[in-house]
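Thread: Newbie trying to understand structure tokens

Hi all, I'm a second-year student working on a class project, and my supervisor (Dr. K.) asked me to get a predicted structure for one chain before our next meeting. I've only ever worked with sequences, so writing a 3D structure as a token string is new to me. If someone could post the tokens and maybe explain what I'm looking at, I'd be very grateful. Here's the chain:
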Amino acid sequence: MRIAVTGSIATDHLMTFPGRFADQLVADQLHTVSLSFLVDNLDVRRGGVGANIAFGMGQLGTRPILVGAAGSDFADYRAWLERNGVDTDSVRISEVLHTARFVCTTDADHNQIGSFYTGAMSEARLIELKSVADRVGGLDLVLIGADDPEGMLRHTEECRSRAIAFAADFSQQIARMNGDEIRILLDGATYLFSNEYEKGLIESKTGWSDREILAKVGHRVTTLGARGVRIERDGEDPIEVGCPEEELKADPTGVGDAFRAGFLSGLAWGVSHERAAQVGCMLATLVIETVGTQEYQLRRAHFMDRFTKAYGHEAAAEVQAHLS
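---
Reply by user tm_fold:
Sure, no problem. This is what the structure looks like when written as tokens:
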């Protein structure tokens, strides 16, 4: 099964300031703020929802096709993704813009000051999915993840016009989208991904009830945080899958991306939705135990031991056949 993952490609530049931002602010001079913080360290991490999801699928051996836009500074990141099983030949390289990046400083009270540079991500709207499909011999499913909003709309319309199954996954972009845009992006989706809060936001912005949305998509996949995930289909009983036990909670960033990577890999293997969700929850657990969205290691024996403990021998045997 050939799955293309569209979405942002970015790097995160994370710094820590040992003091408190509040101590540096002068109440009657806030209209002319001019501050520079001497930080203790700089942590540069690979990120972007498209790249995170593709990386996870690569770890599971399903060779996803990453579709997005990056800058000429993408060479090292590209090599990393290729080494980890991702097809990056459909990433557009901008001639004038840098790869998107998030620059953030966190103080001793965990307050943050950050900036997001869109950069090359804005060129995602120029990518034609037909050229991607022609290169790989057709596409079975396209995940339309958070990216340049115009690019997300274009990819969705192209999937419809070319009868390519697609999964709608707005995540971070849902806050800036209006009801009309969300209706376009989800109508006819084979899968609609969101967390619980986003689920309510989708219903509020579109004016559609949960039942009305279920009638417009194939499956609605809602992540429930520590409670796992719920998969719904119109006219059928929902499927609910819990999370494996965590060994520690290091960093929740990228957990949703990891779930999607595991779930999509399960679809690529042809297992049931329940089994695919179990794989997604197991991969998400590895990510929450690691600082960084692509810093975890998928050691297959360790993965299967924990998967067996969480979901039983029958489920593990089915997954093991594909993971090997």
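A couple of things are worth pointing out once you decode it. The mean pLDDT is 94. Residues 51 and 111 are 27 Å apart (CA to CA). Feel free to ask follow-ups in this thread.
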